Amino acid sequence: MxxxxxxxxxEKGKLTPEEMELVANASVQKKxxxxxxxxxEGEVSDFVGFVVKGSFRLFRIGDDKQEHVxxxxxxxxxxxxxxxxxxxxxxxxxxxxxxxxxxxxxxKEKWDNLxxxxxxxxxxxxxxxxxxxxxxxxxxxxxxxxPAEVRYEKFVREYPTLYNRIPxxxxxxxxxxxxxxxxxxxxxxxxxxxxxxxxxxxxGGLS
Length: 207
Hints:
Strand content: 15-25%
Distance between the termini: 36 Å
Order of helices and strands: HHEEEEEEHEEHHHHHHH
Domain Cyclic nucleotide-binding: 15-115
Number of helices: 10
Protein name: Crp/Fnr family transcriptional regulator
InterPro entries: cNMP-bd_dom (IPR000595), cNMP-bd_dom_sf (IPR018490), RmlC-like_jellyroll (IPR014710)
Largest sheet: 4 strands, antiparallel
CATH architecture of the largest domain: Sandwich
Low-confidence stretches: 197-207
Region (Disordered): 185-207
């Protein structure tokens, strides 16, 4: 399992053998059952997880009692409620495994010590954090400015592997759409874009 993280880090930057050993010593390998929660509302997100196998979603329950998906994570992605992780305050989110999954987990204490002791690892994480912040900003802009059809087709193009594995009602939530709107958009998109229609997502209760 740890070999996946080693390959990932080598791809993103260059760690010394000593730094790689520090990463190994700070990590814990964990298997997670489908539908198991890594985090529930009211708990402090005291870990960062690197996904080796499987998929997860981070979501909140709004005042409307509906689930609102904030992010997904599949292989070679990181998962945590980073706001709670950084602040130490209780989370208002849930993290759920969508498949039988495996991840490499770092506690808050060991993560902070690792960043302090391994400068090359810290550089990789800082670069990824900046990239994720940019992606988050772009997603906000897309949600408030782009029509539903554009959001849907962009999601399919950018995340085809993810799209094939996530129930459609969760994708609708992530895109800020109702189930009915996503169903309509899918039908219209399949007529306009044959390459998009070839993607076969999981139904997940949404026709």
